[in-house]
Amino acid sequence: MSTEQPDVDVEPEEDLPEQMRIRRDKRERLTDAGMDPYPVQVPITSTIAGVRAAYPDLELDVATGEKVGIAGRVMFVRNTGKLCFATLRSGEGTELQAMLSLANVGEEQLDSWKALVDIGDHVFVSGEVITSKRGELSVLADTWSMAAKALRPLPVAHKPLSEDTRVRQRYVDLIMRPEARQMARTRVATVAALRRSLDSRGFLEIETPMLQTMHGGATARPFVTSSNAFDLELFLRIAPELFLKRAVVGGIERVFEINRNFRNEGADSTHSPEFAMLEFYQAYADYRDVAALTRELIQEAALAAVGTLEVVHADGSVHDLSGVWPEISLYGSTSDAVGVEITPMTGRAELLALCSKAGIEVQPTAIAGKLVEELFEHHVIDSFEGRPVFVMDFPVDTSPLVRDHRTDAGKVEKWDLYVNGYEQATGYSELVDPIIQRQRLVEQAALGAGGDVEAMRLDEDFLRALEYGMPPSGGVGLGIDRLLMTLTGLGIRETILFPLVKPER
RNA sequence: GCGCCGCUAGCUCAAGUGGUAGAGCAGCUGACUCUUAAUCAGCGGGUUGUAGGUUCAAGUCCUACGCGGCGCACCA
């Protein structure tokens, strides 16, 4: 963590903006005066929140007699001649006023405070808890010291940071925007609720490989890397599915994982190259069972994280997550919207004509199932308003890991859950027949050999596992970032604390 | 990957048709013992994203590149 680039200028002082030069100079002056700008410790006795909690409603101009030592970041200063005020804030956002009066701290300390403390510095203040004449809860300092000098000025508190700065310098965003701090906590609350819900239903959380010798479990383009020690090409996983199923074969019949997937594809307001996903598998359940469980998980997470099932976004849109969610048929809803009966038997030529008529651009090589999904996305999705919708029963040729529908030929037992206009989760009755699974993966491998970079590969070890017998199971993949988007109304890059961004310069 | 728009002080933004680059906050100096987007007086701060080009003159026009946003394509 400290290999200097050879061409890095170690002493860039001359080129620095004025405000950074001044702050560096103050750091020197602190050192020269024997005041450590970065002490290893400051003797705090309370947190800012602790002081506030201890004195929730004092009258104006009260002295409590209690002495405390507190530390916080200076967010705002009002220096008058002999009495200085500063607003200190702790990391979670609680604020407390510090007051330094000539009478209490003496001329030397008051002068050094005025000369050396900037907005953004972490300072320590020791003194009595009082309220000011205006009633502001304050610590009237006997002494102060620097806890950590800030060398860069904070942005203007009253103007919104540019989106670019917020994402690239999330640390500044977290300092400046309560919403950014809240997002970090909402995310934790959501993930914790999902874990709690699954744990209470007997699911076991496991961790499966991020580095895989063979990518599978989804149709997506992987990131490629390599192991020096093994002289081996490796892939960052695009999904944990094939390993979680191995676990089910091994007897972990209720299993889940919450972790990152990596897909080497485009990024926009609903896609991030690395994204968090919950996958869970339940033996002796089918796709309807796991659909019901998915709804419960989302409802429980919403209540835990945002306290309501009627989520209102900043744009005023209302997303009602309560109750039982409607189901529609993929083929049925698409047929209705297009005005032509579409079934798994509908030919490619007719589907291509329907796409073309609707102005949908499709790959000339697209298979029939893909075309049906295109028609569905083009004609039906926009009609979902504010309610989550389960879209039931997908084409077999786009779903190589899903069991054939028990009654409808050409379909598989798969649903997609649409919330807020995007795919929030998908669930299957899992394909557990090793012979059929092998045929499907051989077809995928053929697509891959034909140049389809998203096709799955033939994972012999996965097939070997299935050959030992996997119980009938339902499985679900649920996007964590997208759930956060639903719960907060924000874009995916706001739900991820440190999303991938291109380097500056 | 393609198209459109943007990039100006530490931050957020201004600067008809090309003519000496400005404001608010922040900063510096001074005043002020109850302020809380403090107030008052004064003062600094810019390679206008980068590199070229046109022009007497470029923040402004042209070209390329970088980064971002939006739309399209791909995907969840």
Structure description:
A hairpin with a 2-residue loop joins strand 16 (411-419) and strand 17. The strands form four sheets. An eight-stranded mixed sheet has the order 6-10-11-18-17-16-15-14, with helices on both faces. The model is unreliable at 1-13 (pLDDT under 50). The relative contact order is 0.09. The two termini are 22 Å apart. Helices cover 34% and strands 25% of the residues. The protein has helices spanning 18-32, 48-54, 102-116, 163-168, 170-176, 178-200, 241-249, 287-305, 330-338, 348-358, 368-379, 434-449, 460-467, 480-488, 492-495; strands spanning 63-79, 83-89, 95-101, 122-131, 137-148, 204-205, 211-212, 224-227, 232-236, 254-262, 274-283, 310-312, 318-320, 327-329, 389-395, 411-419, 422-429, 473-479. The protein is elongated. The chain has 505 residues and is α+β, with helices and mostly antiparallel strands. Helix 10 runs parallel beside helix 11 and helix 12 packs antiparallel against helix 13. The chain binds one RNA strand of 76 nucleotides through helix 1, strand 1, strand 2, strand 3 and helix 4.
**In terms of structural class, how would the helical and strand content be classed?**
alpha+beta
Helix content, binned percent: 25-40%
Mean pLDDT: 91
Rg computed from alpha carbons, rounded to a whole number of angstroms:
29 Å
Note the beta-strand portion. Answer: 15-25%
Strand order of the largest sheet: 6-10-11-18-17-16-15-14
User: Largest sheet, described in full?
Assistant: 8 strands, mixed
Count of individual helical segments = 15
Distance between the termini: 22 Å
Count of extended strands: 18
In the predicted model, the low-confidence regions spanning at least 5 consecutive residues are 1-13
Tertiary shape: elongated
